[in-house]
Amino acid sequence: MKEIENIKEISALNPDYLGFIFWEKSKRNMTLDSIPELHETTKKVGVFVDASIQEIAAKINQYQLDIIQLHGNESVIFCKNVKKLGVEVIKVFSIDSTFNFSVVKEYVLAVDYFLFDTKGKLPGGNGITFDWNILENYHYDIPYFLSGGIGTTEIDGLKEFLKSSAANKCYGIDVNSRFEKKPGIKNKMKLQKFKKLLYEN
């Protein structure tokens, strides 16, 4: 999210989380001085890629962020230091068919959630899904967000996945590029449709 009116519009859908990207190379980079008031149950997620702890702390204070999503090569120690800033931490891992989940083990005590995204050219927002069956190999207790190219065309597959044992620790669904009019600007009607379809029996 990056434009005031669009933030207000999407906030009216009462999402659990809204993400704000603080990475200058991103077409979705957040440049507003403040975030409009959101629904009281919506948490503000700040997304960073190999930022300094000082930069993250400054953004937390400026925007009253609730959660920090780390999308770069952040170390375990770095994640722990971010948690000390009084926020929850999501550590992102990019997944392909060869991904070895043992690499996430050292982060188990350092973060609150993982986010599994599709490995692509960019740190996120590539608009493509990965084979969710690989999550059968995830055996840790930290809940995770499922991300990567999820749109309305994935609804049937998503419903099936959520019934599987691989989804036991799936905490939430992260959607982004498939619901955009342009980078950072979300389509409210598409999001409403997705939400409706997902919760239909």
TrEMBL record:
InterPro entries: Aldolase_TIM, PRAI_dom, RibuloseP-bd_barrel, TrpF_fam. GO terms for molecular function: phosphoribosylanthranilate isomerase activity. Keywords: Amino-acid biosynthesis, Aromatic amino acid biosynthesis, Isomerase, Tryptophan biosynthesis. Its EC number is 5.3.1.24. It comes from the Bacteria. GO terms for biological process: L-tryptophan biosynthetic process. It is an enzyme of class 5 (isomerase). Pfam families: PRAI (PF00697). It catalyses: N-(5-phospho-beta-D-ribosyl)anthranilate = 1-(2-carboxyphenylamino)-1-deoxy-D-ribulose 5-phosphate. Residues 3-194 form the N-(5'phosphoribosyl) anthranilate isomerase (PRAI) domain. The keyword Transport does not apply. Pathway: Amino-acid biosynthesis; L-tryptophan biosynthesis; L-tryptophan from chorismate: step 3/5. The keyword Isomerase applies. Belongs to the TrpF family. This is N-(5'-phosphoribosyl)anthranilate isomerase. It comes from Flavobacterium aquaticum.
